[in-house]
Amino acid sequence: xxxxxxxxxxxxxxxxxxxxxxxxxxxxxxxxxxxxxxxxxxxxxxxxxxxxxxxxxxxxxxxxxxxxxxxxxxxxxxxxxxxxxxxxxxxxxxxxxxxxxxxxxxxxxxxxxxxxxxxxxxxxxxxxxxxxxxxxxxxxxxxxxxxxxxxxxxxx
Length: 156
Fold this sequence. Notes:
There is one protein chain. The chain is α+β, with helices and mostly antiparallel strands. It has two domains: 36 residues; 93 residues, CATH 2.40.50.140. 26% of the residues lie in helices and 26% in strands. The protein is built from three helices and eight strands. Strands 2-4-5-7-6 form a five-stranded mixed β-barrel. The termini are far apart.
């Protein structure tokens, strides 16, 4: 014996529409599936955009090995002692590889953070110069890592 649903009134034209005849439980199920599908699609798009937008940092030795003219890289390392000098508005310095005795020269024009100094850990977005001798820092991409935030405080 089939279960009879509630009596559905006919519309103004005398016909009963498909949506009005549908069982309410089935309507809820369809709405749930559509909502879950949309949320999965949006979450997938967010994950894709998040991972495709990121760029890895490279050290001086990796940069020397991988660099191609015209391509940008985020160079991370420590400013080599005695390498910082100014030529007009341009800041010239070398970034040392944290694990190897290598460094690369950087020409940077832009805002220099106040804590920038020799011996400080920095990150800068660079491109290889066509001559291949120096890396050009993109303007306003220089950031410093404050060592006091990452070191344990002395016991008082």
